[in-house]
Amino acid sequence: ETPYERMHYKPATPGYETYESEESYDYYPEYNQWNKTLVKHVLNVTLEGKHEGSLKKLTKLDFAYYHTLNKTLKHYYVDVKTLTRPLVSVFLNLTHPVPPSPFWYQPSFVGKDLVNATLYVTVGNEPEPFVLTYNATKTVQQLKGLHAYDATPLLHWFVPQCLADQYAGNTVSYACRLATVHDAHLNKQVVAFKVPTQVSPKVKSVALKFLSYLKFRMFPYATFYALPLTEQEEYYVVFKLNKTDVNPYVTVAHGELLLPGEKVVLTDLKLSKYLVPNLVLSGLDRLKHSVFEGHPHPPCSVGKNWVRTYDNVSYPLEVRPNCKYLVTSDCSAKHDFAVVAQPLDLTVGTKKLIVQLGPTVVELPPPDLYKAEVLLTVNGTYYVANTTQDVVLPYKWDRKLLVTVYPTSGPHDPPVVKLTNSLKTFKLLFDGVNFFVWVNPLYQGKTCGLCSNYDNEPYHEFVTPENWLVSNYSEFVASYGFGLPQCKEPLVYTLPVHYLEELKKPLGYESSYPTHREYPTHHEYPTHREYPTHREYPTRHEYPTRHEYPTHHKYPTHHEYPTRHEYPTHHEYPTRHEYPTHHKYPPHHEPYPYTANLQREG
User: Fold this and answer.
1) Domain end: 473, 488, 503, which one?
2) Rounded-to-integer distance, Cα 241 and Cα 185, Å
3) I need a labelling partner for 397 at 20 to 30 A (CA). Which of 117, 245, 354, 598 fits?
4) Domain containing 272: what range?
């Protein structure tokens, strides 16, 4: 529905009129404004089942999606109805936040990180539906930001480390990846389920059996409390779950289950860290993180001035203008994929990517910051991908190539372009400056490029195309450059201006390093006045004395340790004559204790 005048259209579905909240339509003032920033999709599907020309089954599905560009929320409406037996009506109202940028960690930006869902289920001709509500948001600890990490700095080391890395220009570090995923968790969840009072006994019996089964499964973690019953018995169940990361090894949750006349308190309920919703990870990614215990196969990350390889090794990225660099490629005989980066602006860090998947070559320029779209080229043909239009292309036999663009919640973050194939063996995320590349673990040890060989060996990373192992990352980066003759020449690292000014001083080594007033010298630290001496710590009278601890003797004497009365005698262990005393070793005229024992036994 491209004309703006038709944006007032609301699906004439009974479910929308009955259950739709007033926010779904009046919440958007953009309807009557000039900017027209509302994005809406409406899909109506009718399924008919016929037998010999007569209608046997009829199902209608209505799907609506609303999104405003100046809001950080997405609204979904799903209405499914069967007009033939069995009569079932399902209506879902879902509000989901826009995901944040996976390339930039912003702890101060909270946004509307809130998931709200309401599900109405009506079976047959029941007058009241079953209502299930779900709410997920961040906990108080997450909303406090950096202040929540003062008490447990060792548990969340990646948060201050990521902020330091971002300040240094390394936005794709391992710490930032952990911090971004950790901050995207929605650890506070509330599930409420209401059984209608006027419902058939059969349906009510099934619902109560489900509640009994839920109590049975959680019995080891539950404590039961009695509550006063109300006059009208309502089966209203509320389950609250708060996940905590206090223990770095085990993720536990605490919850409450409110039943008619009963309250069940759950404590130390062990669950997966990635069971809760996450704004950055999809359902499949959360499953992979759960299987691999939070450490799935990592991507290769390329930022403005840094590269993090498949084997989690980071190094600076020094490139030349007008050059192209091979980021990663399948260096086996198949040559399934290759990714080439072409720097466009070294100051900003923008890049152009050239992705080769089989015979298909895709050129990805930086996406538009304001339109949330990208003009890509596939084998010389131009395509436009944006938030409302994906690009699906065949690239090898019956395989498909999918290009999608989705906005981010950050006010200054660019949209993200996602490129995947139907086999899920290749995935790329790109925002114009930073990009992630995932490849299937079957390619381990078969890749080459700036992302290295993916052999799970961090000490075997800088391998050139000639299969030489170099120790200088500048030579390693230059070995994968092409396009111009100077692209193969390593760059000489240029120090910042203030460092160069320091080095120009007469005494460079004194000006570069702190003087004796700033840093302790041998005159100031440590001296006998500032550092504990033998009179302060420890003294021979306080700890230990010659009677308590070995003194000038190198080894314990027979008076201290061991004695023949406390430990085995001289027949089993060396005595004072056989074990070193003040002599360094036994004299030549005495046999070695082990030899003497052998002679006695012989």
Assistant:
1) 488
2) 13
3) 354
4) 187-278
